[in-house]
Amino acid sequence: MDIQEIIALVKKARAFVENREKAGHIKTKGRADYVTQVDTDIQEFLSRELRSRFPDIQFLGEEEGLHEMSGDVYWILDPIDGTTNLIHDFQHSVVSLGLCEKGKITMGIVYDPFREDVYYAQRGQGSFLNGSPIHVSDAETLSETIISVGTSPYDRELTAKNFQRIQRVFDLSQDIRRMGAAALDLAYVACGRTGGFFEPRLSPWDFAAGMLLVEEAGGQVTDFAGEPLNLSKKGSIAASNGKIHEELLGIL
Description:
Fructose-1,6-Bisphosphatase, Chain A, domain 1, D-Maltodextrin-Binding Protein, domain 2
Protein backbone atom coordinates (compact mmCIF):
# COMPACT_ATOMS: atom_id res chain seq x y z
CA MET A 1 0.00 0.00 0.00
CA ASP A 2 1.40 3.38 -1.07
CA ILE A 3 0.89 5.96 1.68
CA GLN A 4 1.30 8.78 -0.83
CA GLU A 5 -1.78 7.49 -2.67
CA ILE A 6 -3.75 7.63 0.59
CA ILE A 7 -2.43 11.12 1.37
CA ALA A 8 -3.51 12.37 -2.05
CA LEU A 9 -6.97 11.00 -1.36
CA VAL A 10 -7.19 12.59 2.09
CA LYS A 11 -6.10 15.96 0.71
CA LYS A 12 -9.20 16.04 -1.48
CA ALA A 13 -11.11 16.75 1.73
CA ARG A 14 -9.97 20.37 1.50
CA ALA A 15 -12.71 21.15 -1.01
CA PHE A 16 -15.33 20.05 1.53
CA VAL A 17 -13.73 22.03 4.37
CA GLU A 18 -13.74 25.22 2.32
CA ASN A 19 -17.54 25.06 1.92
CA ARG A 20 -18.64 27.47 4.64
CA GLU A 21 -22.31 27.01 3.77
CA LYS A 22 -22.17 23.30 4.61
CA ALA A 23 -20.18 24.04 7.77
CA GLY A 24 -23.29 25.90 8.89
CA HIS A 25 -25.51 22.83 8.48
CA ILE A 26 -25.24 21.60 12.06
CA LYS A 27 -26.76 18.72 13.97
CA THR A 28 -26.33 18.29 17.71
CA LYS A 29 -25.25 14.82 18.88
CA GLY A 30 -24.85 15.78 22.54
CA ARG A 31 -23.73 18.64 24.73
CA ALA A 32 -21.01 20.53 22.82
CA ASP A 33 -20.94 17.58 20.37
CA TYR A 34 -21.81 18.58 16.84
CA VAL A 35 -21.70 17.23 13.32
CA THR A 36 -21.81 19.38 10.20
CA GLN A 37 -22.55 18.48 6.62
CA VAL A 38 -18.80 18.82 6.05
CA ASP A 39 -18.13 15.95 8.52
CA THR A 40 -20.74 13.78 6.82
CA ASP A 41 -19.60 14.56 3.27
CA ILE A 42 -15.92 13.85 4.03
CA GLN A 43 -16.74 10.55 5.74
CA GLU A 44 -18.97 9.45 2.87
CA PHE A 45 -16.33 10.43 0.30
CA LEU A 46 -13.36 8.77 2.02
CA SER A 47 -15.25 5.62 3.01
CA ARG A 48 -16.44 5.20 -0.58
CA GLU A 49 -13.01 5.81 -2.10
CA LEU A 50 -11.14 3.63 0.40
CA ARG A 51 -13.60 0.76 0.02
CA SER A 52 -13.32 0.92 -3.77
CA ARG A 53 -9.52 0.72 -3.58
CA PHE A 54 -9.23 -1.69 -0.66
CA PRO A 55 -12.45 -3.73 -0.52
CA ASP A 56 -11.07 -6.17 2.06
CA ILE A 57 -10.38 -3.45 4.63
CA GLN A 58 -13.22 -2.51 6.96
CA PHE A 59 -14.09 1.04 7.97
CA LEU A 60 -14.72 2.70 11.34
CA GLY A 61 -15.74 6.35 11.17
CA GLU A 62 -16.80 8.82 13.84
CA GLU A 63 -20.16 9.50 12.24
CA GLU A 64 -21.01 5.79 12.37
CA GLY A 65 -20.20 5.66 16.08
CA LEU A 66 -18.09 3.21 18.05
CA HIS A 67 -18.90 -0.42 17.33
CA GLU A 68 -17.18 -3.80 17.36
CA MET A 69 -15.10 -4.57 14.27
CA SER A 70 -15.26 -8.15 13.02
CA GLY A 71 -11.99 -8.15 11.06
CA ASP A 72 -8.31 -7.68 11.89
CA VAL A 73 -7.72 -4.77 9.48
CA TYR A 74 -9.73 -1.55 9.37
CA TRP A 75 -9.48 2.18 8.77
CA ILE A 76 -10.22 4.57 11.65
CA LEU A 77 -11.42 7.97 10.44
CA ASP A 78 -12.28 11.26 12.06
CA PRO A 79 -13.54 13.26 9.05
CA ILE A 80 -13.24 16.51 10.99
CA ASP A 81 -11.42 16.59 14.29
CA GLY A 82 -12.27 20.02 15.65
CA THR A 83 -15.87 20.34 14.44
CA THR A 84 -16.67 23.13 16.91
CA ASN A 85 -13.64 25.03 15.57
CA LEU A 86 -14.94 24.50 12.02
CA ILE A 87 -18.38 25.84 12.92
CA HIS A 88 -16.80 29.05 14.18
CA ASP A 89 -14.28 29.28 11.31
CA PHE A 90 -11.50 29.03 13.88
CA GLN A 91 -9.40 27.26 11.22
CA HIS A 92 -7.91 24.66 13.52
CA SER A 93 -9.47 21.41 12.31
CA VAL A 94 -7.98 18.32 10.66
CA VAL A 95 -8.81 15.07 8.93
CA SER A 96 -7.39 12.09 10.85
CA LEU A 97 -7.03 8.64 9.26
CA GLY A 98 -5.39 5.59 10.81
CA LEU A 99 -4.99 2.01 9.65
CA CYS A 100 -5.35 -0.64 12.34
CA GLU A 101 -3.92 -4.11 11.75
CA LYS A 102 -4.30 -6.80 14.41
CA GLY A 103 -4.74 -4.27 17.18
CA LYS A 104 -1.89 -1.94 16.18
CA ILE A 105 -1.94 1.29 14.19
CA THR A 106 0.37 0.79 11.22
CA MET A 107 -0.36 3.97 9.26
CA GLY A 108 -1.43 7.42 10.42
CA ILE A 109 -2.26 10.58 8.49
CA VAL A 110 -3.31 13.92 10.00
CA TYR A 111 -4.13 16.54 7.38
CA ASP A 112 -4.47 20.24 8.21
CA PRO A 113 -6.32 21.74 5.20
CA PHE A 114 -5.93 25.32 6.42
CA ARG A 115 -2.14 25.19 6.37
CA GLU A 116 -1.78 22.42 3.77
CA ASP A 117 0.25 20.43 6.31
CA VAL A 118 0.31 16.64 6.14
CA TYR A 119 1.67 14.74 9.13
CA TYR A 120 2.13 11.04 8.44
CA ALA A 121 3.79 7.89 9.69
CA GLN A 122 4.08 4.18 9.00
CA ARG A 123 5.09 1.82 11.75
CA GLY A 124 8.85 1.38 11.83
CA GLN A 125 9.50 4.11 9.26
CA GLY A 126 9.44 7.34 11.27
CA SER A 127 7.16 10.39 11.25
CA PHE A 128 7.07 13.14 8.65
CA LEU A 129 5.62 16.59 8.02
CA ASN A 130 5.26 17.43 4.33
CA GLY A 131 8.00 14.93 3.49
CA SER A 132 10.53 16.01 6.11
CA PRO A 133 11.29 13.86 9.18
CA ILE A 134 9.97 15.14 12.50
CA HIS A 135 10.99 14.38 16.07
CA VAL A 136 9.63 15.08 19.53
CA SER A 137 11.14 17.84 21.66
CA ASP A 138 14.23 17.27 23.77
CA ALA A 139 12.75 18.81 26.95
CA GLU A 140 13.85 16.94 30.05
CA THR A 141 11.21 18.32 32.43
CA LEU A 142 7.79 19.96 32.29
CA SER A 143 9.44 23.24 33.25
CA GLU A 144 11.23 23.28 29.89
CA THR A 145 8.18 22.96 27.66
CA ILE A 146 4.53 23.81 26.97
CA ILE A 147 1.73 21.24 27.22
CA SER A 148 -1.48 21.12 25.22
CA VAL A 149 -4.64 20.10 27.04
CA GLY A 150 -8.16 18.95 26.27
CA THR A 151 -11.22 19.97 28.28
CA SER A 152 -13.49 16.99 27.44
CA PRO A 153 -16.42 19.29 26.57
CA TYR A 154 -18.76 16.34 25.91
CA ASP A 155 -18.31 15.04 29.46
CA ARG A 156 -18.90 18.02 31.72
CA GLU A 157 -19.05 15.79 34.81
CA LEU A 158 -15.25 15.50 34.41
CA THR A 159 -14.71 19.26 34.39
CA ALA A 160 -13.70 19.88 38.00
CA LYS A 161 -11.22 17.02 38.18
CA ASN A 162 -9.81 17.75 34.73
CA PHE A 163 -9.28 21.44 35.43
CA GLN A 164 -7.48 20.51 38.63
CA ARG A 165 -5.11 18.43 36.50
CA ILE A 166 -4.72 21.31 34.06
CA GLN A 167 -3.83 23.69 36.88
CA ARG A 168 -1.21 21.32 38.27
CA VAL A 169 0.38 20.95 34.83
CA PHE A 170 0.22 24.71 34.29
CA ASP A 171 1.97 25.33 37.62
CA LEU A 172 4.91 23.09 36.65
CA SER A 173 5.22 23.78 32.92
CA GLN A 174 6.11 26.93 31.00
CA ASP A 175 2.50 27.27 29.83
CA ILE A 176 -0.49 25.33 28.48
CA ARG A 177 -2.38 25.42 25.17
CA ARG A 178 -5.98 24.46 24.39
CA MET A 179 -6.59 24.10 20.63
CA GLY A 180 -9.65 21.87 20.32
CA ALA A 181 -8.42 19.18 17.94
CA ALA A 182 -6.77 16.20 19.64
CA ALA A 183 -5.28 14.74 16.46
CA LEU A 184 -3.50 18.01 15.75
CA ASP A 185 -2.41 18.28 19.38
CA LEU A 186 -0.75 14.88 18.97
CA ALA A 187 0.84 15.95 15.69
CA TYR A 188 2.31 18.99 17.48
CA VAL A 189 3.82 16.69 20.10
CA ALA A 190 5.30 14.59 17.30
CA CYS A 191 7.02 17.55 15.67
CA GLY A 192 8.27 19.01 18.95
CA ARG A 193 6.10 22.12 19.11
CA THR A 194 4.77 20.98 22.48
CA GLY A 195 6.25 18.57 24.98
CA GLY A 196 3.03 16.73 25.66
CA PHE A 197 -0.75 16.54 25.50
CA PHE A 198 -3.48 15.02 27.63
CA GLU A 199 -7.26 14.70 27.62
CA PRO A 200 -9.69 12.31 29.33
CA ARG A 201 -12.16 10.09 27.49
CA LEU A 202 -11.17 10.39 23.85
CA SER A 203 -12.49 8.03 21.17
CA PRO A 204 -10.20 5.92 18.96
CA TRP A 205 -10.71 8.19 15.93
CA ASP A 206 -9.42 11.10 18.02
CA PHE A 207 -6.08 9.50 18.83
CA ALA A 208 -5.39 6.57 16.45
CA ALA A 209 -3.39 8.38 13.76
CA GLY A 210 -1.80 10.90 16.12
CA MET A 211 -0.65 8.18 18.49
CA LEU A 212 1.46 6.60 15.76
CA LEU A 213 2.87 9.99 14.79
CA VAL A 214 4.11 10.54 18.33
CA GLU A 215 5.54 7.05 18.74
CA GLU A 216 7.34 7.09 15.39
CA ALA A 217 8.75 10.54 16.23
CA GLY A 218 10.35 9.10 19.39
CA GLY A 219 7.63 9.89 21.92
CA GLN A 220 5.28 7.92 24.14
CA VAL A 221 1.49 7.58 24.34
CA THR A 222 -0.38 5.78 27.13
CA ASP A 223 -3.46 6.15 29.26
CA PHE A 224 -3.23 8.10 32.51
CA ALA A 225 -2.09 4.97 34.35
CA GLY A 226 0.76 4.38 31.91
CA GLU A 227 -0.98 1.45 30.20
CA PRO A 228 -1.31 0.87 26.43
CA LEU A 229 -4.37 2.34 24.76
CA ASN A 230 -7.29 0.19 23.65
CA LEU A 231 -8.37 0.94 20.08
CA SER A 232 -11.86 -0.47 20.64
CA LYS A 233 -13.03 1.96 23.31
CA LYS A 234 -12.63 5.45 24.72
CA GLY A 235 -9.56 6.22 26.77
CA SER A 236 -7.75 8.96 28.68
CA ILE A 237 -4.73 9.99 26.60
CA ALA A 238 -1.33 11.09 27.83
CA ALA A 239 1.25 11.81 25.13
CA SER A 240 4.74 13.20 25.55
CA ASN A 241 8.26 13.27 24.19
CA GLY A 242 8.96 10.31 26.47
CA LYS A 243 11.45 12.13 28.66
CA ILE A 244 8.75 13.93 30.66
CA HIS A 245 6.22 11.09 30.57
CA GLU A 246 6.62 9.86 34.12
CA GLU A 247 6.49 13.41 35.47
CA LEU A 248 3.30 14.09 33.47
CA LEU A 249 1.65 10.84 34.58
CA GLY A 250 2.49 11.64 38.18
CA ILE A 251 0.41 14.78 37.91
CA LEU A 252 -2.46 13.20 35.99
